[in-house]
Every structure is written in structure tokens, then in C-alpha cells.
Amino acid sequence: MSTEENKAIMRRFIDAGNRQDMEAIWSYIDPECHLPDMARFGFEPNFEGYKKFLAAFYMALPDAYLHVEGMVAEGDQVWVCYTIRGTHRGPLRGIPATNKPVRYRFMAMYRLANGKIVWADALADDLGLLKQLGALPRDLVRRAV
């Protein structure tokens, strides 16, 4: 597939995520997909682990919205920079609901084959997220600013 076709697939995948249309989301992921980032959240780095992660994510941020800041594709890879916004209404990264609005950056790298995501990894601004949730010790917040 061309880079433009891969980017179009990713746009549809992201749109499905913003609608929380789980059936559509799953349709863009190869069942044998490898997702190394899931391990840092305590989930298996595979399709089933991602399903559990995403269910927990949407429980924590039921109004989550991923705004695409930029997208670059080369070969079978697509890189997406997002801003994630939502309201913290459920447990998130071990932090009970605060009902605070959050906004943080997220960079994801995807590899596609035959129109499906077969590999994905990501980096998020966890420090910024935890700071917004009030989950950092005060002296650390002062030093981080």
C-alpha cells in the first residue's frame, strides 16, 4: 500500500477511536499485532492486551479525544503526533478519578501490512499528565517547572 493509503487508514482508525467505536477500532488491527508499549501499563503486548488497555483508557477518560497534530508516513510506517484531551472520570495509571480535565501529548509509531496495524509503539507526556492530575509530590512539581 502507498504511504497515502496507510495515512488514510490511520485517519479512519483515529476517527473510530474518537467515536469509541470498538468494532471499527478492532477492524484496523491485525490479530497478531505486536504492541510493546502495553507492557509498561501491565498488559500483554498483543491484541488482547490492547483491548484491555483501551477499555480501561475509555473508562478513565470517557470523553477522550485524540487531536492529530501531525502525521508522517514512509514505506509501511506511519508516525502520528496527538494531543489527547479528556476528563479524568475513572482510575488512570493507578490514580483514582479526579474529575479534572487533562491535555497531554502522545507520539505513536505504527507499521501497517495489508491495510492493518501489525506493530505499534508510543511515547506519552506522562509527567505532564501526572502533574495535571495532582499525582506528583509538590517538591518534584517545583523542580519540574
Overview of the molecule:
The protein has 145 residues and is an alpha+beta fold. The chain has a single domain, classed as Nuclear Transport Factor 2, Chain: A. It is 35% helix and 34% strand. It has 5 helices and 5 strands; from the N terminus they run ααβαββββαα. A 5-stranded mixed sheet has the order 1-5-4-3-2. The chain is globular and about 50 Å long. The N and C termini lie far apart (44 Å). The mean pLDDT is 94.
Q: Distance between termini? A: 44 Å
Oligomer: single chain
CATH architecture: Roll
Give the helix tally.
5
Note poorly predicted spans.
none
Helicity range of the residues? 25-40%
**Strand/helix succession:** HHEHEEEEHH
Question: How would you briefly describe this protein structure?
Answer:
This protein is 35% helix and 34% strand. It is of the alpha+beta class. The longest helix has 17 residues, at 3-19.
Furnish the topology, listing elements before pairings.
Layout: H1 3-19, H2 22-27, E1 29-34, H3 47-60, E2 65-74, E3 77-87, E4 101-113, E5 116-124, H4 126-132, H5 138-144
List keywords for this structure.
globular, Nuclear Transport Factor 2, Chain: A, 145 residues, alpha+beta, 5 helices, 35% helix, five-stranded mixed sheet, single chain, 5 strands
